[in-house]
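Section 5: illustrative case.
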């Protein structure tokens, strides 16, 4: 082995010494033996890496998939008990029903409940078509949404799949019927449009109320453990997950006072969702309209 190769190997080995920035989780920097000597004087390597995936892999017995529909930037979530294979699907989209069924079949799962976090205005839910194609599947949505479904959810209700469950927290404001679904150990929260990553749902249609939304997020979501992972119904910037702690610190709207928040929401001047006139009537009848 020539001297160049030896020096290269030593440099690569030393580069594995990792220390995160102050805004990321800290990992103790481990001293490495480089070229036979203990090297503790190397400068730290900075990274913005997050470690949510590692945490998820440690969740014994829970299968989890985050799926994306690009037209409406909607996230659909599949959760299943790895032993019983019972599964729940959160916020399915009509255009991706084939994808969802294919994945469920490949993983050998039995889908028990398809639940919507609220009556969506930007896409038609896939719940109705899923019910037609999967025998025994039940639909679920908040009782306060005004929509029809097999299961009408209220505060404190649970959706059980195998040994796992999702608990309902009512979080109105974007609409009257918004709910946040929280895993039994409070490590994951599916917030729908109430809380987005560094944002929140609009409040200028469908019974929207900025004051109620602010109170919902602060009283029903920000009271979850800081480490609780936040999974929203949408993201428009390629972000996939946040935490309660991050949103309490960095959400540019919800870190404001109530008065400031209301003023921000009253001046967004957003265009009306393109599919609202089709999506809302369809979603009020579980997505069966014109299928």
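Designed sequence:
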């Amino acid at each position: 082995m020539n001297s160049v190769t030896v020096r290269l190997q030593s440099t690569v080995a030393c580069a594995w010494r990792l220390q995160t920035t102050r805004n990321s989780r800290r990992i103790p920097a481990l001293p490495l033996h480089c070229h036979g000597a203990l090297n503790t004087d190397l400068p730290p390597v900075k990274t913005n890496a997050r470690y949510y995936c590692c945490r998820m892999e440690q969740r014994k017995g829970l299968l989890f998939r985050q799926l994306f529909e690009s037209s409406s930037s909607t996230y659909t979530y599949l959760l299943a008990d790895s032993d019983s294979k019972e599964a729940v699907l959160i916020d399915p989209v009509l255009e991706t029903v084939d994808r969802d069924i294919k994945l469920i079949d490949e993983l050998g799962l039995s889908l028990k409940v398809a639940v919507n976090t609220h009556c969506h205005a930007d896409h038609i839910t896939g719940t109705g078509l899923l019910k037609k194609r999967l025998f025994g599947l039940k639909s679920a949505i908040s009782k306060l949404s005004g929509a029809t479904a097999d299961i009408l959810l209220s505060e404190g209700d649970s959706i059980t799949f195998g040994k796992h469950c999702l608990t309902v927290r009512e979080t109105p404001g974007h609409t009257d019927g918004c709910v946040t679904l929280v895993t039994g150990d409070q490590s994951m929260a599916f917030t729908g449009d109430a809380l987005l990553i560094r944002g929140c749902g609009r409040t200028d249609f469908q019974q929207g109320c900025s004051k109620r939304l602010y109170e919902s997020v602060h009283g029903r979501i920000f009271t979850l453990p800081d480490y609780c992972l936040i999974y929203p119904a949408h993201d428009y910037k390629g972000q996939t997950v946040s935490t309660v702690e991050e949103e309490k610190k960095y959400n540019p709207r919800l870190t404001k006072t109530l008065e400031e928040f209301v003023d921000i929401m009253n001046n967004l001047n957003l265009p009306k969702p393109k599919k609202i006139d089709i999506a809302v009537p369809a979603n009020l009848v579980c997505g069966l309209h014109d299928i």
